[in-house]
Known about the structure:
It is a single chain. The protein has three helices and no strands. It is mostly helical. The chain is globular and about 35 Å long.
Amino acid sequence: MDLKEQVRAIIAEILEIPVESLDCDAEMDQIEQWDSIHNVSILAALEEKFDVMFPEDDLFDLISVSTFADEISKLKAQ
C-alpha cells in the first residue's frame, strides 16, 4: 500500500466512513464528517504512524488526503 493509500485509510477510519468514499483530492470542507475535532485526531494519528511532526505553519494547508501525504513525504525526505 502506497503512502497516499495509507493516509486515506487512516483518515477514513477516523471519520468512520468507507475508504472507497474518500476522494484523495476532496478537501475537508467538502466532507461532512471532517470537522476540526476530527482534524486534530487525524493530525495526531498521522504524526504517530509516520513518526513526523507537522510544522505549525503548514497546518492550515493540510486539507485533503493528498496534501497530508505530500507533507509526510516532504518531512520524511528531510
